[in-house]
Amino acid sequence: MKSFNIADKLRKLETEVGTLSPMHKILLGTDGSVTTLLENALDCEVTVHTLSQEVVPADSHAAMSLGIPAGEPVNHRIVTLNEGADGRVLLYATSDTPPLSRLEPSFKDDLMQADIPIGRIMRMHQIEARRELDDVKVCRAGTGISDILGVFRHEPLLSRRYRIITGKEPLISIRETFPYSNFTEEARVIVEAPARIHMGLIDMNGSSGRVDGGIGLSLEDPAVVLEAKRSDEIRVRGDSENTDRIKKTVENTLAALGVQAGAEITLHRTYPGHIGLGSGTQISLATARAVCELYRPPLPPVREIAAIAGRGGNIRYRDCGL
């Protein structure tokens, strides 16, 4: 297998997603047990909840990682690591174990039946092994995983894949994934704002008590996702086209809140402007919402956030989809 330089990979990740916390780097780069690391860091028991487990034909990725022919049966397991017995989900993991005939019967029984971390199972059975890291990346949650992790669908996730090697053979291939917003000591706010279709003005003469006004629909996709954290100055990362818009919105929001500070905004996801889906409006509203939440909970009313962002002259923002 090609040499894998984790330091280089982490630096590349930071150009894509923003600054990684020390805990992010440890979880992505460790060659030890993630369960043990989390228990030590959080000072609590970390439990495993099995979401699904079945014997399936190995796809091309699993086959390559495990050194077996594609289509050979593997045990495919999906679990979460949780804070305590019923606490928040910390991490989502999938694993593939090669033909069960390779495994000792007692090890196979524990692997197939018990909600026990794999590292702990290996210690119980005194299996000498090493972890070989072969991938770290940023990915998006998607609908299924976002529900499990309790994050937005387009929120950035950090992910790593490694193999557990015993002797000279791969025993298990594992991918672990967790939200970028987890495991950081900095206060961060992430806002997702869906695209909208503006369907037209609803009152041209003010007979309803408001001139103009509008009606529209929110769409699941595309969407704006941005992150705000406190800073001494205003900084924008991720999209040069919207830098001036975001900076101006941050300035206006901080002035309205009476805050003598700055904010660092990272635009993780957006979509083209001037195509009728309101990207400029959603970016401005999401920025104002994020800065308000960062510095002054509870939030101002939606109408006030719209005014701070310089939006809402023609549209009634009863629900911005933020």
**CATH homologous superfamily caption of the largest domain:** Chorismate lyase-like
Please provide the count of β strands: 10
Number of helices: 10
Helix percent band: 25-40%
Shape: elongated
Overall residue-averaged pLDDT value = 86
Structural class: alpha+beta
CATH class of the largest domain: Alpha Beta
CATH architecture of the largest domain: 3-Layer(aba) Sandwich
- What's the end-to-end separation, in Å? 45 Å
- Can you tell me the residue ranges where pLDDT is under 50 for at least 5 consecutive residues? 314-319
If strands are numbered along the chain, what order do they take across the biggest sheet?
1-2-3-6-5-4
Please give the domain count.
2
CATH fold descriptor of the largest domain = Chorismate lyase
**Strand-residue proportion:** 35-45%
Please describe what this structure looks like:
The protein has helices at residues 6-17, 22-29, 34-42, 60-66, 105-113, 118-124, 142-149, 243-257, 279-295, 302-308; strands at residues 46-57, 73-83, 89-97, 130-140, 156-166, 169-179, 188-203, 212-231, 234-237, 262-269. The chain has two domains: 6-179, Chorismate lyase-like (Chorismate lyase, 3-Layer(aba) Sandwich); 188-308, 2-Layer Sandwich (Ribosomal Protein S5, domain 2), CATH 3.30.230.10. Helix 8 (243-257) packs parallel to helix 9 (279-295). Residues 314-319 have low confidence and may be disordered. The chain has ten helices and ten strands. The longest helix has 17 residues, at 279-295. The radius of gyration is 24 Å and the shape is elongated. A six-stranded antiparallel sheet has the order 1-2-3-6-5-4, sandwiched between helices. Strands 7-8-10-9 form a four-stranded mixed sheet. The chain starts with 5 loop residues before the first helix and ends in a 14-residue tail after the last helix. By secondary structure, the protein is an alpha+beta fold.
